[in-house]
Amino acid sequence: MTTRWAIAGTGRMAASFAPDFANAVDAELVAVGSRRQESADAFAAEHGIARSHGSYRALLEDPDVDAVYVATPHPQHHRLALAAIEADKALLVEKAFTATLAGAEEVVAAARSAGVFCMEAMWTRFQPAVVRARELVAEGAIGELRAVQADLGAQRPYDPSDRLFSPELGGGATLDLGVYVVSVAQHFLGTPDTVQVTGTTYPNGVDATVSYLLAYGDGRSASLVASLESGTAGRAVLMGTGGSLEIEPRFHHPSSLVLRRHDAEPETLTLPATGRGYCHEIDEVGRCLAEGLTESDVMGLDDTLAVQSVLQTALDTLGVPVGEDTTLTI
Length: 330
Known about the structure:
Pfam families: GFO_IDH_MocA, GFO_IDH_MocA_C3
Helix content: 25-40%
Structural class: alpha/beta
Radius of gyration: 19 Å
Strand order of the largest sheet: 8-9-10-7-11-12-13-14
Keywords: Oxidoreductase
Largest sheet: 8 strands, mixed
Distance between the termini: 29 Å
CATH superfamily of the largest domain: Dihydrodipicolinate Reductase, domain 2
Number of helices: 9
Order of helices and strands: EHEHEHEHEHEHEHEEEEEEEHH
InterPro entries: Gfo/Idh/MocA-like_OxRdtase_N, Gfo/Idh/MocA_domain, GFO_IDH_MocA-like_dom, NAD(P)-bd_dom_sf
Family: Belongs to the Gfo/Idh/MocA family.
Oligomer: single chain
CATH topology of the largest domain: Dihydrodipicolinate Reductase, domain 2
GO molecular function: nucleotide binding; oxidoreductase activity
């Protein structure tokens, strides 16, 4: 069964995502939608897409679209996702899933009530290297998992007019980069019992560098950092009683792992992604739809809510002013 896809949005993420349909299995990109017809037309021409829509409403009413990838800024995800669910379109929502925990909870409740497939576009979980890391941990290759460390930083000059630093558009380290470090910890350790956060902010209140400590009742922990002020290696390390597993930089789209067992030489496993790496999550959506599933068992909605809860704690602790966009025209 070929899944017919549309992209909502024509920005940087949409432009990165679109070319990987060439590497996906049983998936076809058939439409794109924007708030402006000229933007949709230009994107369609650049990426060889048959139909372009000058409104999100027109996109969602397209009868030849089965699934929608939401690639707009974070605060617009909530309203677009709810409209797509109402239109009975399967959903892949770019991370961060929404700007707020309350927004995420509303989308998840709507999807489950309607029986519509919905998944956060956390491509990291579907990268071959991360899939293998998950298998190795399950096999006991590093013993019992005790802790996760992860960092993801990129130095970006502060520009309040850029989306990355705009409170109205969900800018800041937590929603753009923190979602990755929190998600990798949640993926391997589960949902934490307590969350501690500290960090710095820019003059407009948006978060700049943030450290997260996730603690679990049984003594396990995760130590995480996200930054728009400092470039970091982008490494994730899983530490167990029998060794460690390093997801090599940059861990959110890695091509290799290093397995270090006690009293053994390190072993490097090379497992590159196909294409840019987005096709793996496209394939996951197709698999789930073909099997009649409304959630992925790899990137389930409960995981999304758990991650979003940590992000909300961070934003609240630092006083970052974010909210859902309630003015978006559908």
